[in-house]
């Protein structure tokens, strides 16, 4: 049994994100990359993607972001949890595409609701026949922008609602306090 089949998927919805594909193809990350990827821009982009995936999955789903660790001799292929999201660099010698496909197939054995987020045609075609839903990097960015907008609207609505002590007191207590104040 390989390491992917052992991963416990406990929630009903599972997202598997092709990390670098989304960062390179997703329009919401274009401003971070510029013509040259530096360590700082990679780290910033990965952090932003982690935040976006966390926003997408909330408490209702589970997600794994897979990055390519093919040429990294230190990459062991083990996922590390960062909040509700697992972050995984593919094992040395194995590319992220293979890892995404294996994770999707293993997750599909555990639950019906598996979505792979990638604009890579070979990844999408490989998981399609296994009952796995697909979401492009562009659609992912569109969904994240929509969720951020909703969150911003919710925060704004709560900020505009004034909460006073008077509005939270029962009417009989409020009357007694007014009587004390006026006497």
Give an overview in words.
- This protein is α/β, with parallel strands linked by helices and 183 residues long.
- Helix content is 51%, strand content 16%.
- The chain contains eight helices and six strands; from the N terminus they run βαααβββαβαβααα.
- Strands 3-4-2-1-5-6 form a six-stranded mixed β-sheet.
- A hairpin with a 2-residue loop joins strand 3 and strand 4.
End-to-end separation: 80 Å
Radius of gyration: 23 Å
Strand order of the largest sheet: 3-4-2-1-5-6
Alpha-beta content class: alpha/beta
Average residue-wise pLDDT: 84
| Sheet with the most strands, sense and barrel status | 6 strands, mixed
Helix content: 40-55%
Strand content: 15-25%
Listing every helix as H and every strand as E from the N terminus to the C terminus, the arrangement reads EHHHEEEHEHEHHH
Kindly state the number of beta strands.
6
Number of alpha- plus pi-helical segments: 8
Q: What's the shape?
A: elongated
Assembly type of the shown chains? Answer: single chain
